[in-house]
Specification:
The protein is α/β, with parallel strands linked by helices. Helices cover 56% and strands 9% of the residues. The strands form three sheets. The protein has a six-stranded mixed β-sheet with strand order 5-6-4-3-10-11, with helices on both faces. Strands 7-9-8 form a three-stranded antiparallel β-sheet. A two-stranded antiparallel ribbon has the order 1-2.
Length: 777
């Protein structure tokens, strides 16, 4: 309850007894419920990520061909057809289009290549991780002003969140459209005697290939990468060699397209039609929008090496070769790629092209897994199953739920659209929107993280937005010709993610506001006013500090609890990974006789709380280590009355004042063994402060340590029970209709079909105990 404070005639610098009592009690409560900053400071920070050897870098560069560049590499299959869907009128138009393709590849994939989180579960201890990159902007700098402006208003954070979610939704749409257009374009080279059946056969073959592609995803990125990388390597060598052959055979003058003058002449000659054709040119850089999502799978340097020294030169040769052929064969605009292949290598090229198209889909499929996983970790996407597929590389994952959704979407798009150009229009719309969002976020990263000079940021922003907004203005004209598909997919995805994130934030706020007072816990006494049964109870909570509401709800309905209680918080941090050595933070709650602890298990967005039979053992081992260190830090302590963590910091003066000023509060603490006060990391009885020097030394450190460790071992042998909250969220009575629909129907449906927390955390079903509660928003 809020308390009204009015001005009084008390002289400045003096306080009434009532004010001192309120202040002391507030201070006590705050000190009893401290976050685990001190424990984080004590962790060893000697662990650093090891650099990659040149051999490993080359190996990963090779693998990145199959995962990252398959999509970009298959663009020559359909770019010229989508650029000239109605035919080529002038050979010079081919040169102009080629010039646009060259500079698009140069500007986007080659050159281009803040505290705004809304769930308030961040603590300073998170920044002590060795993998936490924290930079401080100079006061008064443009970066500092931008950061302050973003953090100043809640609506600005929400606006940024919507932008990020929009980009994520478009990326999901990209994951549906990329396999559809890549496979359909590759199978378009099938030669059938009956032209009327050609389209149906192509679609049927494409669907069969898509089913096979998604069915093999469970083997993992590492195995798929080794399988796909040789195919893409051969593909790039084929298109590079074919391009060089066509340039030499048909027209070497196409190399004049490297002059940007032909871009100006192209737009001058074609006018509005030339501008709209940018929607087709855009397809030459498809796949670059997935680069940033696929960075989670491979080191950035490996991706850059593969593109600069292999992918980029081969693509230039491929497009120049097709242009040389089209200059002399304008009638083959619909099948320029296959028509330009020499007859002697046609079928080998068709087989490799089909394989490359399958691989081309892998980049966006893998990118979709990665971005959905990060969205789940930030509470912006329903809980889905995520499987680690590699023991060596942390970021390589497989998401079965998303995999089958993507497959069904691909089949629906492939079967529904009869013209490849319509899928191309849809694909282009998704790609350009992802690029625009990426550029906007890159600007913020350059300012807030990299601290680039504002002039450099301005140049980057101008060039990127100039190119990408030009493409965007072109695809707008094709919304009614297939461009509406990614917008519908994005709208549905955005609704799902927004509702889920809103409910997640409200649930966390509910947990924060309804957490149990530590004063109340201490007032229950060592037995907590309950029957303490043998065993260890792991109480899962989203709170990194404080006692969750489900605990009080549990002991109110069932007046018994385990001999040892550990509050476990699995927490995802804004870092790419948390080293195993720094995974757990442990702290004692209350005096030693309470046998209550808190453990925070921390993960980065590339980590995963994977199925690990040793999770319990690791947690309990960390708890044992904590007890040993704690005991060594207490040379004169008594386990029944005194508890500390890693350091001792007594404040006797404030203790005496607190006892003196709380005589009127005896009723509140009548059930306590003694008055209990706390510093940052100490819980001490008032009497023990005066008598510490007279404590008997009979109970040595070794005996005390052995007793508690033996007790912990005995409890573990009795059994470990996982206690989790099962919260049902409902709209409050009187809420407006959209809110009721969002919470009572959309969120309720998502919560029902998504994976339960116990599944995500891999809690054994036979040791799971759910505590139900209803929460109204």
């Amino acid at each position: 309850m809020a308390e009204r404070v009015e001005a009084s005639s008390v002289p400045e610098g003096e306080n009434t007894i009532e004010e001192r009592e309120v202040g002391a009690m507030w201070e006590l409560e705050q000190k009893l419920d401290q976050p685990m900053d001190e424990e984080a400071n004590k962790l060893n920070n000697m662990y650093r990520e090891k650099g990659l050897s040149m051999l490993m870098l080359l190996r990963l560069s090779f693998q990145s061909l199959g995962i990252v560049y398959g999509d970009l590499g298959t663009s020559p299959l359909y770019v010229f057809y989508n650029t000239f869907p109605d035919g080529i009128d002038d050979s010079e138009d081919v040169i102009g289009a080629l010039s646009l393709i060259i500079y698009s590849l140069l500007l986007i994939p080659l050159i281009k290549h803040a505290k705004v989180k809304l769930i308030p579960n961040q603590h300073r201890s998170d920044e002590d991780l060795t993998t936490y990159s924290r930079t401080v902007s100079a006061e008064g700098s443009f970066a500092a002003k931008t950061k302050k402006w973003l953090e100043g208003k809640e609506w600005r954070k929400r606006a940024l969140l919507v932008v990020v979610l929009l980009g994520t939704c478009m990326m999901i749409g990209d994951g549906i459209l990329t396999p559809a257009i890549s496979v359909l374009s590759a199978t378009g080279g099938i030669k059938v005697n009956n032209p009327k059946m050609s389209g149906d056969i192509v679609v049927l073959v494409a669907i069969v290939i898509l089913i096979g592609l998604f069915s093999m995803q469970h083997y993992g990125t590492d195995k798929v990468g080794w399988l796909f990388a040789p195919i893409v390597l051969i593909w790039f060598l084929f298109i590079g060699a074919t391009g060089m052959y066509n340039i030499c055979k048909y027209d070497t003058s196409v190399l004049k397209a490297f002059s940007p003058t032909y871009i100006y002449l192209y737009f001058k000659r074609r006018g509005r039609d030339g501008w709209i054709s940018l929607g087709g040119i855009l397809l030459s850089i498809t796949g670059t929008e997935a680069l940033y999502a696929d960075i989670a799978y491979f080191p950035l340097l490996a991706i850059q090496l593969a593109f600069t020294f292999f992918v980029f030169p081969c693509l230039l040769l491929a497009y120049c070769g097709q242009a040389a052929y089209l200059v002399n064969h304008k009638e083959h605009y619909q099948d320029a790629f296959y028509a330009s292949i020499p007859d002697s290598v046609y079928w080998p090229m068709f087989i490799v092209a089909t394989g490359a198209a399958i691989v081309g889909s892998q980049a966006t499929i893998s990118g979709t897994y990665s971005i959905v996983k990060q969205a789940v970790a930030h509470g912006c996407f329903p809980r889905v199953k995520i499987v680690h597929t590699s023991k060596k590389f942390l970021g390589q994952i497989y998401c079965p739920d998303i995999n089958w959704i993507l497959m069904l979407g691909c089949i629906a798009v492939t079967a529904s659209f009869k013209k490849q150009s319509q899928i191309g229009n849809a694909y282009g719309t998704a790609v350009v929107l992802v690029m625009l969002v990426t550029t906007l976020l890159m600007v913020l990263i350059m300012l807030l993280v990299w601290h680039c000079h504002w002039i450099l940021v301005l140049i980057f922003t101008f060039l990127s937005f100039f190119v990408e907004l030009s493409y965007f203005s072109a695809v707008i004209f094709k919304i009614d010709e297939g461009g509406w598909v990614p917008l519908i997919i994005a709208a549905i995805s955005l609704l799902v993610m927004s509702v889920w994130h809103y409910a997640t934030v409200k649930k966390y706020e509910f947990e924060m506001h309804s957490k149990v007072s530590m004063s109340w816990i201490l007032g229950l006494g060592p037995s907590l006013g309950l029957v303490r049964v043998p065993g260890i109870g792991l109480v899962y909570t989203e709170l990194a500090s404080g006692v969750p509401h489900i605990f009080s709800h549990f002991i109110t309905n069932l007046p018994a609890i385990h001999s040892v209680v550990v509050f476990v918080c699995v927490k995802y941090l804004p870092v790419y990974t948390v080293p195993e050595e720094e995974r757990f933070l442990v702290k004692r709650i209350g005096p030693k006789t309470f046998r209550m602890f808190r453990c925070v298990a921390r993960y980065g967005y590339k980590d995963l709380h994977k199925k690990d039979d040793d999770f319990e053992n690791k947690l309990l081992t960390k708890l044992s280590s904590f007890i040993r260190i704690e005991t060594m830090m207490e040379p004169t302590s008594n386990s029944s009355t005194y508890s500390s963590t890693y350091s001792v910091n007594h404040t006797q003066d404030s203790t005496v004042d607190l006892i003196h000023n709380n005589n009127n509060n005896m009723d509140m603490f009548s059930s306590m063994v003694d008055y209990t006060v706390s510093t940052l990391d100490t819980i001490v009885s008032a009497e023990s402060l005066h008598n510490a020097v007279s404590f008997s030394q009979d109970n040595t450190i070794e005996e005390e340590e052995t007793d508690e460790l033996e007790f912990l071992k005995t409890c573990k042998e009795s059994g470990v029970v996982h206690i989790m909250g099962n919260t049902v969220v409902k709209a409050r009575t009187g809420s407006w209709l959209p809110k009721k629909i969002a919470i009572d129907y959309v969120y309720a449906f998502l919560a029902k079909i998504c994976r339960a927390n116990s599944v995500i955390l891999h809690v054994p079903h036979e040791t799971l105990l759910n505590v139900g509660q209803v929460f109204y928003v």
